[in-house]
């Protein structure tokens, strides 16, 4: 046990030192990370669908019917509630994206947003504002409009988009520093030389994953620290939890891509598969298109990949607008465990061939 620990530490140190001795690769990796963070603050178009639910409460049946007809005409799903408290409770539990409460006697319309997705809120606010204006014109009453929980200020949008895409920077870094390094070790016969030594296969795998995770995390944190004052990136709401989630995501994806590297064993095919998989995961994660408005087939695909759980956990620790879900962390840990086991079995098979 002690010998294996010493071997693991020595190999991990050797891998990190080897990376540091190639400053060109280090500078390219850092420059790419800075550039990624500098350009990710962009807006996305969100198309509203019946999966976007709006709660409505009013004592006036005619007003309620008018709101229902207009919102359903815009493609939204409308759910009526007997009391404002019931509607707000459903909003806080994630069942609704917004609540419209009309009090005709007080001549007041209150629109409450979930505040979890500023891109969704931005699309909804246009529809709900137009609905309120049409309602006032129909009943010839001047309503006072109250807005609660809106979250599409420039700072909120920047923080939201950053939380969405940070996971893919981590994914790209671990592919470079874990998967590609492993492919190069196979092509250069370095791995086979190591397999002839008395070092156990588990230690070899742990060293490769540890060094890749440490290097990737160091580059990511340095790039993020540089971009906070320059670009205005937000600081995470829960720093320690954020760091832990970053480590978990690096471990879960790193193990999978090291296994793929051991299976593919050639640089160009591995690079091609990596680019395609990262693109697919980006669009299936809910980062570009909110999960609520995805087609059914895409929702099924998203739940079968780690990307959805990566994005949700990263939002929870960076924005603190929703709780950190234990099942998301468990799924990511299972991906890491499965990738590690498959990579270990592949290493054992390579020694026997």
Radius of gyration, CA atoms, in whole angstroms:
25 Å
The tally of helices reads 13
Give the mean pLDDT: 82
* Overall spatial form: elongated
Distance between the termini: 27 Å
Low-confidence stretches: none
Report the portion of residues in β strands.
5-15%
**Which H/E pattern describes the elements?**
HHEHEHEEHEHHHHHHHH
Strand order of the largest sheet: 2-1-3-4-5
Number of strands: 5
The overall number of domains is 2
Major pleated sheet:
5 strands, mixed
The computed structural class is alpha/beta
Describe the structure.
69% of the residues lie in helices and 8% in strands. It is an alpha/beta fold and 353 residues long. It folds into 2 domains: 2-39 and 155-352, no CATH class; 53-152, 3-Layer(aba) Sandwich (abc type-2 transporter like fold). A 5-stranded mixed sheet has the order 2-1-3-4-5, sandwiched between helices. The protein is elongated and about 85 Å long. The two termini are 27 Å apart. The mean pLDDT is 82.
A few lines on this structure:
The protein is of the alpha/beta class. The chain has helices at 2-20, 23-39, 61-73, 84-92, 118-139, 154-187, 190-195, 201-231, 239-264, 267-284, 296-303, 307-319, 326-352; strands at residues 53-58, 77-80, 98-103, 108-113, 144-148.
